[in-house]
Design brief:
The complex is a heterodimer of chains A (115) and B (114). Chain A is mainly β. Chain A is 0% helix and 49% strand. Chain A has no helices and eleven strands. The radius of gyration of chain A is 13 Å and the shape is globular. The termini of chain B are far apart. Classes of the chains: A mainly beta (115), B mainly beta (114).
Chain lengths: 115, 114
């Protein structure tokens, strides 16, 4: 089955620790995205990547880092510099076109809790 | 991207049509209307999108008013599994692929009741 997988589904970390969230897709999509969702709120874009070895900051990139070494993978690291890391993290992917108007397919999400 | 306004919540009886409104009075000519939904604790799911013509697919219908200032998402026969938050989003079409992100508001929580 084609799709996007995120692991783990639930993640706990101690304050001051870095943690990496996994996102893998087998849809052969060029573009991948990371969003953050807080309770009762919409999604906010953290980082996105339109092609391998290239990525751009979204609206709330501070305290986060990413890499895009492979087309299928776009891991997100939540660093200790992120002040309020507890949230629901969603990864998405899409094909890339000139207009950017392609539907984004989302993974099941990772719920990160900082203790 | 233009802003959208949606009611915070709606109820619908199972088997009946669910009509979810969205106001986007500042929409411009090159902006599309997109709908996504998010079932609790899952990732959002694409439903449908349109520019000015009405659209229909296997999930829903999208009715856009002639002045494009509002739209309605119609789920023709709502089921309990359609209970979710529904997001109406407007996105501009720009050459060069710079329109990369989806800006989600708070959406409408649709509760389908048995």
């Amino acid at each position: 089955d084609g799709g996007i997988t995120q692991s783990p589904k639930y993640l706990f970390r101690k304050e001051g620790q870095n943690v990496t969230l996994s996102c893998e897709q087998n849809l052969n999509h060029d573009a991948m995205y990371w969003y953050r969702q807080d309770p009762g709120q919409g999604l906010r874009l953290i980082y996105y990547s339109q092609i391998v070895n290239d990525f751009q900051k979204g609206d709330i990139a501070e305290g986060y880092s990413v890499s895009r070494e492979k087309k299928e993978s776009f891991p997100l690291t939540v660093t200790s510099a992120q002040k309020n890391p507890t949230a629901f993290y969603l990864c998405a992917s899409s094909i890339f076109s000139g207009s950017g108007l392609n539907e984004q397919f989302f993974g099941p999400g990772t719920r990160l809790t900082v203790l | 991207d233009a802003k959208t306004t949606q009611p915070p919540s709606m109820d619908c009886a199972e088997g009946r049509a669910a009509n979810l409104p969205c106001n986007h009075s500042t929409i411009s000519g090159n902006e599309y209307v997109y709908w996504y939904r998010q079932i609790h604790s899952q990732g959002p799911q694409y439903i449908i999108h349109g520019l000015k013509n009405n659209e229909t697919n296997e999930m829903a219908s999208l009715i856009i008013t002639e002045d494009r200032k509002s739209s309605t998402l119609i789920l023709p026969h709502a089921t309990l599994r359609d209970t979710a938050v529904y997001y109406c989003i407007v996105r501009v079409a720009e050459s060069g692929g710079s329109n990369y992100k989806l800006t989600f508001g708070k959406g409408t929580l649709l509760t389908v009741n048995p």
